[in-house]
Write a structure and sequence with these properties.
Blueprint lengths: L6 H19 L1 H19 L1 H15 L1 H10 L2 E2 L5 E2 L1 H21 L3 H4 L3 H13 L14 H14 L3 E4 L10 E5 L2 E8 L7 H13 L4 E6 L5 H10 L2 E4 L16
Parallel strand pairs: 5-6, 6-7
Antiparallel strand pairs: 1-2, 3-4, 4-5
Helix pairs in contact: 1-2, 3-7, 4-5, 4-7, 5-7, 9-10
């Protein structure tokens, strides 16, 4: 990629041309060259502000999704600490895949590395600018009740969903069918991210129930190991917020 022209590069030829023209046309030519130089300086000095406004505009366009993903990828541990590891990965993913390509296309590529922390701060602010709905009062505390809760959410999306018996479920807490597609679901009401054990269980359940697709649903996000295994076995990792709109393949697949 060619190096962006510096301010000195941009000023060199106007100054040179203005100096030469002043020898022929006098002070008026020098004044015109001075105005050109001043305009270039003002434009260049304002580039940082335009960069920030562009990042804000991109993040603001996705603020509702960012607010939801922040909630989905965060949780409070048993000691009352807010754990944001999953959200920080999601924030970086959004910046790298959504913000950076637009900035590079618009000629701000040289500012990305030096202003990376500023980009992340702007994305963070956008995620906090929308109040995500509070789920604490409605979310069941009991695991069995959480399974019924997830089944009810699937029914909102048009699935015929039923919970399985605790014994003999072979890793499926909910079995749902829609338009000839069978889905098996592991439901995890956790206070920490779900590990790859749940993914292994639902892969076995998919085979046992002769299902077309499999998902692990949780309120607390997923570990990197679970994400890696899910990607390799084509298992969906979902927050329960995604269930009422679940049609075929979820819009936000786990990475």
């Amino acid at each position: 990629m060619p190096r962006p022209a510096s301010l000195a590069d941009r000023l060199f030829w106007p100054i040179l041309a203005g100096g030469a023209a002043s020898l022929w046309f006098g002070p008026k030519a020098l004044a015109v060259a001075g105005l050109v130089v001043l305009a270039l300086v003002v434009h260049r000095l304002g580039r940082g502000g335009r960069f920030r406004r562009r990042v804000r505009a991109i993040a603001r366009r996705h603020r509702e999704t960012l607010a939801l993903r922040r909630r989905q990828e965060s949780y409070v541990d048993p000691y009352g600490n807010e754990i944001l590891d999953g959200w920080l990965r999601e924030r970086s993913y959004f910046a790298e895949r959504t913000v950076l390509p637009r900035l590079e296309a618009e000629g701000y590529g040289d500012l990305i590395e030096v202003r990376w922390d500023e980009i992340l701060a702007i994305v963070e602010a956008a995620s906090l600018s929308v109040a995500a709905p509070d789920e604490a009062e409605d979310l069941p505390e009991d695991g069995i009740a959480y399974e019924r809760y997830c089944a009810a959410l699937l029914e909102r999306a048009g699935w015929e969903a039923r919970t399985t018996k605790a014994a003999g479920d072979q890793g499926a807490d909910v079995v749902a069918e829609r338009d000839g597609v069978r889905l098996v679901v592991q439901c995890k009401r956790y206070a920490k991210p779900v590990g790859n054990g749940a993914v292994q269980e639902v892969v076995a359940a998919r085979s046992y129930w002769n299902a077309d697709c499999a998902a692990v649903v949780s309120n607390a996000g997923f570990t990197p190991a679970a994400r890696k295994l899910a990607a390799a076995t084509d298992v969906w990792l979902l927050h329960h917020d995604a269930l009422p709109d679940l049609r075929a393949r979820p819009a936000g697949r786990s990475r």
